[in-house]
Amino acid sequence: MSKARVFDLSLFFASLAIAFIPAHAVVLDGTYMKALLLYTIFSSIYFQLRIVTRSGNSTIDYAISYTSSFGIFAGPLGTLIFETVYRSIVYIYKKKTKTADPGEFLDTFYNIGSFTLGGSAAYYLYTLLKPLADKLPFGYWVLFLLVVCVTTLLSSAFLVITFALSGDIKTRREAENLLFRSRNLLDFSKVALTNALLLRLLQMEKWEMLIALFLLNYIVSLSFYSKSQSAQHKYERDKFEQMAYRDFLTGTYNRAHMDKMMNELNQSGEYIGIVVADIDRFKKINDSYNHAVGDRVIVHFADTLERHLQPEDILFRSGGEEFTLFLRNKTFEECRAQIEEILDSLHGNSVSAEFEEQTISVPYSASFGLYYYKADPGHKTSMEKGYVYADQLLLESKKLGRNRLSYRNDLGA
């Protein structure tokens, strides 16, 4: 058995010892049974709203915990019974839904031990400091915040130890992140306020109000959970769309997005400069070095083009070493000046790259073709045709010796 599993079981046996050695804090009567039933039902329901993360091979569930209030009400033995019943229900649920981890059975013993010790710590800390808290304004609520902070940090400390023993945590920074940064004061305050209210209602045996508070907390939590799920789904959709329309190497838009934008801009009525740019003698760079060096040149060229973009302009990687720019809502002279600035910035420039365990400097140049026109339904030229014209102008730049701009203004001289 691994060291981590020995530690997990030691927590369970420690909770047994604490539960049975001292005098019981509560009589296991009808009042306790009602509280046990309510807490078990609602904790099981709240389990569906947990946030699940992974650390190495282990799963961490950040579910809403009511152990502090129940621990103070029922003491160590009462908490042990509650945690055993509740964690057994969770284990059975995970098994039936096939969401259990391979070591779920032993994880259940860890959870029973860890949370029983946390509830016991809450009981002893509350009992010790309650007389002092009674003398202070809002002392009860401040005391509960302290109890929740201590028990939460204790629970996190148990996780850190077991993850360190299993190898899922390897550095001090990872341990500190789990121990101190996984929750904030707002989280502590929410749990403290809820548990403080629950304990008051338990002590007064206000069962209807207790159920109402559970239901209110569930509805609010469900609302936040639904919104977070919707936000997550939107993020995933946006990320997928971004991946679908972004070039993997350069991060610029790809040809698929260029075709989409052409359809959108065809009827826009905008003045547009369509620019096709191509790295000169790129094949020679690949042949002289390798494709990794060639990729560095492509990325450098894309970054250079992007630095000269204005807010409305759009850059696409339309081919291997070919890029297309849509320069929007500016005059022909402004478009030409913008491309000439790019040419000037490339002059005498070079790319640093790793080749055969050396850092080399690779100079390169680029050629440009600019076609300028107005995109509207009444014009005989579409965006697609404008792109063809710009590509022909690029070829003209190549024929004239490369490292230059060829252009055509379809609206005048």
Describe this structure as you would to a colleague.
- With 413 residues, the chain is α+β, with helices and mostly antiparallel strands.
- The chain has 13 helices and 9 strands.
- The chain has helices spanning 3-20, 30-46, 67-96, 104-133, 139-166, 172-181, 185-204, 207-245, 255-265, 282-288, 291-307, 332-346, 383-399; strands at 51-55, 58-62, 270-279, 314-317, 322-328, 350-355, 358-363, 366-375, 405-409.
- Strands 4-5-3-8-9 form a 5-stranded mixed beta sheet, with helices on both faces. It has a two-stranded antiparallel ribbon with strand order 1-2.
- α13 (383-399) links the parallel β8 (366-375) and β9.
- The protein is elongated and about 95 Å long.
- The model is unreliable at 52-62 (pLDDT under 50).
Helix/strand layout:
Blueprint: H1 3-20, H2 30-46, E1 51-55, E2 58-62, H3 67-96, H4 104-133, H5 139-166, H6 172-181, H7 185-204, H8 207-245, H9 255-265, E3 270-279, H10 282-288, H11 291-307, E4 314-317, E5 322-328, H12 332-346, E6 350-355, E7 358-363, E8 366-375, H13 383-399, E9 405-409
Helix pairs in contact: 1-3, 1-4, 1-5, 2-3, 2-8, 3-4, 3-7, 4-5, 5-6, 5-7, 7-8, 10-11
